[in-house]
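Moderator note: this is an archived Q&A kept for reference. The question asked for a predicted structure of one protein chain; the sequence and the answer are reproduced below.
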Amino acid sequence: MMTSGLLASFLGTQVLDGAVSGMVALGVFPVIWIPLYKTLTEVEDALAVVIAPIIGKKVPGRVLVFAESCDVILSIALLVCILVFPQTMVAALIVYLAFVSILPLLVDLAEEFYLNDLGQVDSTAAIRGNTMIAVGTIICGAVVGKSLGALTATQGIIIGVTVNIVLSICAVVLRAASRSQFEPEHEVENMSDKESLNAALRNHFFPTGAKVLVDGGILSPWVSGVATIASAVTGIYVLLWISGSGQAGPTRLSLLFVLVGSLSAVLPLISGRIMKGPSQRVMRYLRILSVLGILGYGSTLIVALLYSQLGIDRLWAAPGIIVATATGGAITFTVSTLRQMSLERARFKAMIGWVFSIAALCGLAASWVAYALNAVGNPVLVLVLATLSSTCLALIFSAGKLPAKPDEEAETMVDEERSN
């Protein structure tokens, strides 16, 4: 039920997000709204290194119920404002989005701690939970939520807000019911009240030492940062370029959301099965995904060049960006799940805040670079950057390795004893 609560809440949020994207395509919202809102959310995500230790001291389930309750209250306030003062719809929506922008970070961090606690009990449970969340959020987001929201953009925002309220209330009920039935143990470290300010800051940001920034191989925060660049620098910009402007824009954008989401929903299922196998097979899978990302962005770049020279239909760029976006999401999902199931609690708590913060800073920089390069008007340069960053990620995976699983370590010890 905890996962069902997440999916209900996420579906409502994505309907609104899709409606805003449709309003951008219609010209109701300016294109600059994309990097501005991205800046706000990424700055908040960059504060994860500060917020994560605080969330880590709370019971994850309690944080999740609190966040969903806040969304219900703010959504009702937005609906009332739009109904009473319809002329302020755009302004009210902007204020609402600004206030709720911090909630996804709180939910994501709480979910990370919840799944890490679950992974301490059963690593396969963490894989199953993450797979259900990944597939469910993709279907609720790109396939249903964003596409439906983009279509309702032409009808106004009231439908989307109402749907979000109903689904957020369902999320609160499901989250609370789940907590009453089962909640994995969550350990909280007791810190000394007499420690110095320097010691307190050090324990807050680097509880296991500064090596947390580079430790962990492919699970390190810097790898997550590199993995963020390609998707952030292309993001919604390339999809808007492919969909074009005018009345047909929201319809084409809705179709692109469905296609991206459909492929993105399949890959986590494959990832979940592969992660149950040997570490070497997982690394080969990550290398294949990174190569597919290079090919996807590269083919989209070729179409963009041909469009500028020969004027071919932009829709020819759709297959490449769909593959690249889906494989990028699969890489993020796989690395995140491996981190939850492989790292012990103390190391996970020390690392997760930096993962969010570094990824957010990389995403923030990439988003503004995309806007500065006019990615909606001509995505050639951002596609070059996406291809290069995907190449860097492929090189990291080609040289990286995962720590051996306990059963693999046991087999290695047995083999060594036999050889001796």
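Archived answer notes: The chain has 16 helices and no strands.
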